[in-house]
Amino acid sequence: MSISSRVYTARARLIESGIRPGEAGLDAEVLARHLLGWDRATYFTERHRDVDRRFDARYEALVARRAQREPLAHLTGQREFWGLEFRVTPDVLIPRPETEFLIETVLTLRPDRSKSGTLVDVGTGSGCIAVALAIELPAMTVIATDTSQAALEVARANATRHGVAEHIDWRHGSLLAGFSGPVDLIVSNPPYVSALAIQHLEPEIRDHEPHLALNGGSDGAVPLRALVAEAGVALVDDGLLVVEFGCNQETAFRQIIAMSGLSDPKVVRDLQGLPRIGVAAYRDSR
Asked: What is the pLDDT of residue 260?
């Protein structure tokens, strides 16, 4: 049997497990390329080669795990974000493409990449946001916080991989982890799924990703309220808060900002036109 035929068989099995056909085909291919150490160009050139016994046994084990709805990123141990490969473990939230809108928003707000200042990434997880911004904004001091020590270890490893580990100050703790400022920019992808809604998520998320990084409390906005409260104390005049939130939380975001010491709320929409990123500023009224 050829490698391409084996991948096609795996695709059918993944579809039977409830994975959407397009995703199933890509997952089956990615798992094969992961084991073979091939990029996609090599796969399309060499996929007609015969399967050897060692590959088949290892591939079967990975496909079986994926059919049990274990996330692809956990099987390969990595996920691409902002054109960079990040190590991923069950201790961290798997980086999502929509979070790249947060990076794009920050870079739009900070067009002068040589400008210094202090940036805090709250709830850094895999470190994807902190690492991407440390690379894009090299003059800024970057602080990354997380309540999970295991997540911070993954984030440090990712920062080392991309050469910015020494550029980031890692802090174990909630929200700003006791850092009171002054801060020029606070960024975060906080937990924003309501506690009730978690049980209705896809199995890959519900059963395999850390609930600590998902659970936003009774209405999904509890961590955001706490973050906004701390941001109002820590931000410098004209300092900015940039956060990701759920696609149905624009109203909540605006209401939270209206009741805080921050102002000028703005919302950035993703490629589907859904509200995804919220921006607010601190204005010193003294």
From this structure: 95
